[in-house]
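Data availability excerpt. The first of two example chains:
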Amino acid sequence: MTAYLQAIGIIALIYALLALGLNLQFGLTRLVNFGVVAFFAIGAYTSALLALAGVPLILSFTAATVLAGISALPLGLLSLRLREDYLAIVTLGFSEAVRITLQQEEWLTKGVQGLPGIPKLFASLGPAGSDTALFFILLLVTALVAWGTVRLTRSPLGRLLRAIGDDEPALMALGKNPTKFKVQIFMVGAALAGLAGAFYAHFITFISPEQFIPLVTFYVWMGLIMGGSGTVRGALGGAVLLMIFLEGSRFIKDFIPGVSEVQMASVRLAVVGLALILVTMYRPNGLFGKRTA
C-alpha cells in the first residue's frame, strides 16, 4: 500500500510541474497551449536517450529541460501572430507531429517498441528507497518552482504578464511591447514540462510514443481548470484533485457490476468529465480560486 501511495504521489507531483508550467502560459498570459504533452515527451526522450548513452543524470535532466524550452521557441514566435483558437490548433498539431516522429524514427527512439532499461533515480537505494527519495526530490523541486512562480507573479514582470493576458491591445497602447515576454514565458512553461518528462522517464524506466497522447494534455488542462488558473495553489491543488479523480475512479468498478476493464476506462473519463462540468458551473474560477459573487 505504501508503494502504491508513493507512486501516486510521484505522478501527482509530475502533473503539478506540468500544471505550473501551463499556469505560466495560460494563467498569466492567456497563451493557449494544447501541446503540453509534446514538451513532456521531448524532455522524457532526451533524458532517457542521454542516460542510456552513459551521460550523468544531472546533465541529462539539464539537457531535457533546455531542449524542451528551445523547442518551444518557434511556437512562441507563432503566438505573436495567431489568435488564441489558432494557436491552440497549432500546438495540438505540434504535439501529434512530435508523437509521430517518435514512432517513425526507430533508429533513435525504437519506435513503438519503446525504450526499456532507463536508469532509475537513486537505484542504489533499492525499489522502495529509490521511490521514496524520488518523491522527496520531486517535492522539493515542485516547491521551488511554486515559490519561484509566486515571486514572479508578484514582481513587476508578473504584473506585466497579467496585463498581457487581460488586455494586450491596451498594454500596447501604453507603449509596452509584449513580444519578447510572451515568447519567454512560453519557453519557460515548456522547459518545466521537459523537466517533468525527465522525472517521468526515470521513474517509469520505460517510455513509448503511446504514453504521450493528447489525453495527457487534456488531463493537465483539466487539473488547472478545476484548481483555478492564474494561481499557484490552483495549479497544485488541481494536480492533486486530478489524481484523486483518476485513481479514485478505479474503484467505481466495485460498485458497478458487469463493467469490463475496457468499459471502465470510458466510465473513468465520464466521471472526470462530470466533475469538470460541475466545477465549471458552480466554481468557474476553480475550487482554489476566488469565489465569484
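And the second chain:
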Amino acid sequence: MVRIPASKSHTLRRLLVACLAEGISQIPYPLDSLDTRSCAAACRALGAGIAEHRAADPRCPNPPDTSGERLVRWEVRGKGRGKIADPGAAAGTVPISIDVGNSGTTLFLALAAAGLGTIPVRFDGDAQIRRRSAAPLLAALTALGLHTESEGGYCPISVRGPWKGGRASVECPTSQYLSALLIAAPLAPPGTLTELEVPLLNERPYVEMTLDYLDVQNVPYEKGRDLSWFRIPGGAVYRSLDGSVPGDFSSAAFPAAAAAISGGSVRLLGLDRNDSQGDKAFFHVLAKMGCDVRWEKNADTNSADASTDGNAAILCVERRNPLRGGEFDLNDTPDMLPACAVVAAFARGDTALVNVAHARIKETDRIAVMAGELGKLGVKVTERPDGLVIHGTGGILRGGKIDGRGDHRVVMAFAAAALGAGGPIEIDGAESAAVTYPGFLELLEAETA
C-alpha cells in the first residue's frame, strides 16, 4: 500500500485563494514539498500569515522531520481583496521581493495576484525559472492596466497594480496563465470588468479545476463552452476555506509506472476518483497498454485514514501480461510525458505520444530530454515537434548514466525505469524529486548520494 502525497495543483490553488480570502483558512494534509514551500513563502511575502502545525501523525504522507513530526496543517490568515502589502514596507515605496524557487505555478499565479495591490512586487527564481517565459501572461496583465517590467517575459519580473480591467487576449500553451487571471480577476475593484479571449488553451482540465474553486466561492463569471472567452466582474470577496487536500494523480503515476515496468502491482491510497485532476488520465493509458487498473473499496474506511472522500477507495494497478504500444494524446496532461515514455520503452511495438508540444516549455524541454536520455539506455526514439514515438521491443533496458536536468518528473520517470533495467541506472540531479514527491526515491529504495 502506498499513501500518495497531496496534490500539488490543489495545494497551490488553496494557498493562493486562502491568501486572498477574508478570515482564517485551514488546509489539512497539504503537500509538503519544495514547490509548495515556495508558494507559502510567496503568500507570506504578499502579507498572509501562515502557521505550520506539525505532529507525529503516521496517516500523513508528508516526510517526517528529524523529530519524527510531519506537516499536518497550514493555518492561513488571508489578506483579503485588494489588501496585498508588505507589513514592513511603506505603501508604494519599498518593493516586495519573492523568490519562487523552481515553482512555475507559483510564479504565474502570484504574478496576477500581485497586481491586485499597488506595491511593486519583484519575482525571481532558480535557473530553470529564468528560462520559463511569462510573456503571454504579462501582455494580458498590461492590457488590464497593470505595470509590468521584464526582459522578454523572463524573470526577474516586476508587477504593480492597480487592476483596471478591460479586454485582453492570452494564448495559453500552459493553462497556468489562464488560471492566474481567473483567480485574480474576481478580486479587482467593484465595477471592474475583465474580458478574456483565449485563442489557444492547453491543459484544459487544470483550468476546470480553477473554475471549481471559483464555483465554491460563488464567484460570478461567464464563459464560452469551449473556454475560449470569459467575462469576470470585479468586487468579489473570497471566503476562508477548509478541507483536506486530495491525493496527487501526477505523483501517483510514478509508483504506478514502476509497477507496470516491473510486472508487479501497487495499491494507491488517498486518491479521489471524482477529482478534476487531468493527470488521472495516465491510468487510462496504463489500462490501454495492458495493465489491470481498478478501484477497490477500502475496507478500513472508518479509520483515521479516511480524511478525504478519495480515501474511501484504493486504486490498484497490476501487470500480468506484456505491455503493448498505442497512440496517446497528451494535450491535457503534458506532465505525464516522462512517465508515459518510460513505460512505452518496455512495451511491444511503437507508442506515439502526440499533441503535446507544450511539454517543451516545462522545467526542461521534456520531449528532447526524454528522447536523448532514453537513447542512452538503448531505446530507439523518434522525436517529433509535438511529441515522441518510442519504438519498444518489450525487452529490458540497459543500465547507464542519466542526466535528470534537475527536472523532478524526468528523475522520477527514470527511477521507475531502473526497476526494469538490466543494470543500474545512475541519475544526476536525483534530489530534484523532492520538488513534488519527497520520499519517492526512498519508496523505490533507490540509493542516493
